[in-house]
Amino acid sequence: MKRIKHLSVRALLLALLxxxxxxxxxxxxxxxxxxxxxxxxxxxxxxxxxxFHVEDEAYPKKTPMSGEELIQFLIESKHLDTPPLxxxxxxxxxxxxGDLDRIVYTTDELAETYSLKAMKLDSDDIFFIxxxxxxxxxx
Length: 139
What we know:
- The protein is built from two helices and four strands; from the N terminus they run H-E-H-E-E-E.
- The chain has 139 residues and is of the alpha+beta class.
- The protein has a domain of 93 residues.
- A four-stranded antiparallel sheet has the order 1-2-3-4.
């Protein structure tokens, strides 16, 4: 009986250790996933904006635009083939879904420069930024 009780205590301690380990690792894993997908989406949009600029010698004039609006514009103008993944949902951007969209596009009044900002999920602070003047890369 003592041996069974000893094994039960060990099993309980092992289970608690595993749960505690997961509680620490899962949020970190989700944060890394969000960072990687946000960067990938911004880079995809940056490439499409560059294609648009090469053809039109300006960036899209409408400002500001949400990520969803920008993606729809770039698809309609044939500078983006398919919608990238929405970093918050890990599903392709859908134009009727109303999903959380934390990407903002802006341009200057002559559409000579642009800025793409990914905002943090829990505030209006900037998570990542790429633009045509200062922040050309996410590295």
